[in-house]
């Protein structure tokens, strides 16, 4: 009887502790959702202010960083996959003083995007912007670049009408970028990738291909699904699971945390480690396991388990059969995931030059 009551007491104690922990996790969820709502409300207010001047508000995405600076009088757009960099500023009139102020705002915005003054704390265009003669723009020659390459080519032919009903004149400049800008950015983050790929026994070319596909090596990436940073982690899913694995306690990483390249890559590689060694630990190491992991990163490991591994007994199929099921045959796999698998696998060889 004593043993019975002892077991009953232990069961009640464990249940109480479980409920207590669950209450903590629920509170974390509630606080995170509240913070997200507050940020969304602030964002809508900010967008409305932008629209007064620029007419439309352009959002940043996974592979495009848009910033409005200089008291919202200047705008920069960096398209990381295409290699387009454009900076603009508005003037209320074509008078000398208004145009002079617009030129100053445009110059200051150029200097800002060519610095580490952003949420990632890194120069996202380092070694990528060039002079017309091919020289790379650096801190030391930036003033010369602006004087020679930007100011003489400014135009003010375009206009924009803001939501406040006023027409403004736009000064616009396009910054020339090196052709191999993707590999230049990849090389910048290669030491971090090597550090954590080695730690978690992952192929660094695989991680580089994932980063290219997710963000085109844009550390300020943000998707419609609220995924952030180089490896596009969603705080409440992959971010939460990987953070708990790395640090030993449950916490959703903030967007500011995930915009930092090393922290993002650390959690992203940790999440792949969990996919390989926790979610799919019953699948033998093979190419097909990698295909499943790639699909899981985009679609979720539980869906891959349900619709690929269980439905097709994929553990007993060949590598090519699993690839074809995910890429072509399964009616359950979204088109995005099908294309994601193809892009990641095809992009791995482009990083071979880093490992010769």
Secondary-structure topology with pairs:
Blueprint: H1 2-54, E1 64-69, E2 74-79, E3 84-91, H2 96-113, H3 142-150, E4 155-161, E5 167-175, H4 181-199, H5 204-215, H6 235-247, H7 255-258, H8 261-279, H9 287-299, H10 301-312, H11 319-329, H12 335-347
Antiparallel strand pairs: 1-2, 2-3, 3-5, 4-5
Helix pairs in contact: 4-5, 4-8, 5-12, 6-8, 9-10, 9-11, 9-12, 11-12
List keywords for this structure.
alpha+beta, about 350 residues, Lysozyme, disordered N terminus, 5 strands, single chain, elongated
Low-confidence stretches: 1-18
CATH class of the largest domain equals Mainly Alpha
For the residues shown, what is the average pLDDT?
A: 91
* Main sheet: strands, sense, barrel: 5 strands, antiparallel
The largest beta-sheet arranges its strands as: 1-2-3-5-4
Approximately how much beta-strand content do the residues carry? 5-15%
CATH fold naming of the largest domain: Lysozyme
Give an overview of the whole structure.
There is one protein chain. Helix 4 packs across helix 5 (204-215), helix 9 runs parallel beside helix 11 (319-329) and helix 9 (287-299) packs across helix 12 (335-347). Strands 1-2-3-5-4 form a five-stranded antiparallel β-sheet. The protein has helices spanning 2-54, 96-113, 142-150, 181-199, 204-215, 235-247, 255-258, 261-279, 287-299, 301-312, 319-329, 335-347, and strands spanning 64-69, 74-79, 84-91, 155-161, 167-175. The protein has two domains: 64-179, no CATH class; 182-355, Lysozyme, CATH 1.10.530. The chain is an alpha+beta fold and 356 residues long.
Overview in brief:
The protein is α+β, with helices and mostly antiparallel strands and 356 residues long. The chain has helices spanning 2-54, 96-113, 142-150, 181-199, 204-215, 235-247, 255-258, 261-279, 287-299, 301-312, 319-329, 335-347; strands spanning 64-69, 74-79, 84-91, 155-161, 167-175. Helix content is 55%, strand content 10%.
